[in-house]
């Protein structure tokens, strides 16, 4: 079978290879040509000048790329206008590129101006020495030891979520579960990053969060935009974004001033940061210099943007799978009952290093529904990746879900199996399940906090509630909006009757 360029497709190449008896090594040689050029790869046919632009939509781009990977093979080029994009979904190739960051490959070059314009020049947007400097601070404040001091606050927010959902269960309310979990992650992230108790679980008037709700979709639109039209002509949405950023900056600046006052009242040799903001204010470089207020704001905003949608949507997918797989939910419930010993909310300080059922479910969910189904980078030097030559300046899309063997387009379609099959490989940390957090030097520094949040909510839900999916609005679909999120995921909660004596904290 030929693709739209008239070249044999991936399936045809496989069929041809299987027609001859050969060893595994010989078959591998047939499948890969040493030092192959990007121009030699099959790919989708585009239009003159605009290339494949008409095939793309920001919310569904990952579907299109994954489908093309199934059609043309693990590596193929697409064109955004005159700009060529190399797509890689082969696991070994993805791992090589992630491991070779930031020297060999950096975040897509077009990202940096977008983040700079928005004032989000923190650790995720920075490169080079600036990134190394900020990364040290993030890693020191987000390691397991430092997070232990935050566990009591995490438990308090989880208790608020429990109380809110008990009321919803008693009223038999149908919940947009992703929106509900967003409130939870907002409260956790605000407390951790800014020392600010937004308490969106019990009230709706937090100023910072109202404006962040405008920043999230605007950031995604600008990242996905093929042309930066906003630099030449600002629409109403662009002015609203500017206003939202200004309001967030004003609110954070107020919190920065309060934090400085609190730290100034402490003795110089006994200053103890109470949140990530205060860690930034106390940080010093080797030469004694401190972070500027712009650096502090950028990293606080980065923490808010990175810590809310991502964790909330992953948790929403977990509850979705619980509804579809009651046997898996029951296994997690048994683990929760044994661990919590009558408590309604887990004591996060007593978490073991590994929770068999709970962590397997988290990892399997991240395999099938990663926070980001693809990652965009730019080659910094001439590289050979799995026999393919990648010249410097080449933009590369890494399909993380396809690399983990979990893209919906794969045949057979991937199934949710945390304890067997594909999921059996997810039962220990440090494998492909960690790809959604990145890999190598730029792995997400907030991984430990995200896992603590997910554990806390999953165990609380398993301990206290039964779940019932509500499908009146149609099947649950996924869409990409800053993070991979479920659309139309509606769930009704019911209390576990025999736990009434312990379920009112």
What does this entry look like structurally?
The chain is α+β, with helices and mostly antiparallel strands. It has two domains: 10-118, no CATH class; 128-370 and 406-499, Cytochrome p450 (Orthogonal Bundle). The protein has 18 helices and twelve strands. It has helices at residues 10-18, 24-31, 61-72, 91-99, 111-118, 128-141, 144-148, 151-170, 177-194, 207-224, 236-264, 276-282, 293-307, 309-324, 326-340, 356-368, 400-403, 447-464, and strands at 75-80, 83-88, 105-107, 174-176, 374-379, 383-385, 388-390, 395-399, 465-470, 477-481, 483-487, 490-495. It has a five-stranded mixed β-sheet, with helices on both faces. The longest helix is centred in the middle third of the chain and has 29 residues, at 236-264. 40% of the residues are buried. Residues 1-33, 422-434 and 500-504 have low confidence and may be disordered.
């Amino acid at each position: 079978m030929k693709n739209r360029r008239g070249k044999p497709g991936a399936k045809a190449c496989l069929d041809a290879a299987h027609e001859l008896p050969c060893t595994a090594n010989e078959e591998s040689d047939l499948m890969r040509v040493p030092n192959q050029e990007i121009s030699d790869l099959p790919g989708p046919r585009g239009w003159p000048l605009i290339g494949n632009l008409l095939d793309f939509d920001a919310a569904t781009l990952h579907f299109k790329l994954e489908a093309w990977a199934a059609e043309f093979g693990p590596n193929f080029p697409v064109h955004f206008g005159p700009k060529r994009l190399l797509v890689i979904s082969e696991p070994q190739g993805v791992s090589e590129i992630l491991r070779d960051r930031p020297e060999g490959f950096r975040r897509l070059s077009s990202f940096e101006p977008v983040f700079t314009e928005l004032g989000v020049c923190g650790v995720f947007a920075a490169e080079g020495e600036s990134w190394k400097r900020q990364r040290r601070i993030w890693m020191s404040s987000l390691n397991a030891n430092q997070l232990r001091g935050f566990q009591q606050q995490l438990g308090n927010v989880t208790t608020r979520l429990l109380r809110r959902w008990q009321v919803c269960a008693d009223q038999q309310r149908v919940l947009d579960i992703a929106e509900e979990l967003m409130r939870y992650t907002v409260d956790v992230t605000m407390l951790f990053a800014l020392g600010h108790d937004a308490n969106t679980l019990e009230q709706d008037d937090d100023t910072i969060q109202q404006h962040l709700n405008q920043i999230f979709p605007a950031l995604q639109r600008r990242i996905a935009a093929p042309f930066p039209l906003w630099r030449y002509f600002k629409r109403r949405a662009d002015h609203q974004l500017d206003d939202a950023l200004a309001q967030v900056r004003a609110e954070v600046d107020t919190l920065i001033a309060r934090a400085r006052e609190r730290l100034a009242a402490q003795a110089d040799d006994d200053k103890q940061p109470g949140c990530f903001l205060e860690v930034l204010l106390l940080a010093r470089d080797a030469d004694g210099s401190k972070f500027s207020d712009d650096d502090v704001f950028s990293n606080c905003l980065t923490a808010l943007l990175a810590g809310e949608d991502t964790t909330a949507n992953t948790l929403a997918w977990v509850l979705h799978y619980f509804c579809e797989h009651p046997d898996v939910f029951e296994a997690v419930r048994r683990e929760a009952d044994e661990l919590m010993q009558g408590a309604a909310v887990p004591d996060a300080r007593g978490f073991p290093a590994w929770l068999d059922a709970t962590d397997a479910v988290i990892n399997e969910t991240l395999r099938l529904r990663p926070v980001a189904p693809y990652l965009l980078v730019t080659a910094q030097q001439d590289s050979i990746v799995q026999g393919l030559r990648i010249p410097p300046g080449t933009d590369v899309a890494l399909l993380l879900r396809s690399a983990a063997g979990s893209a919906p387009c794969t045949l057979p379609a991937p199934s949710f199996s945390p304890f067997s099959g594909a999921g059996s490989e997810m039962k220990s940390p440090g494998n492909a399940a960690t790809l959604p957090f990145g890999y190598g030097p730029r792995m997400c520094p907030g991984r430990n906090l995200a896992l603590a949040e997910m554990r806390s909510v999953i165990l609380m839900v398993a301990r206290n509630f039964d779940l019932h999916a509500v499908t009146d609005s149609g099947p649950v679909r996924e869409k990409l909006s800053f993070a991979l999120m479920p659309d139309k995921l509606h769930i009704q909660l019911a209390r576990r009757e025999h736990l009434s004596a312990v379920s009112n904290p």
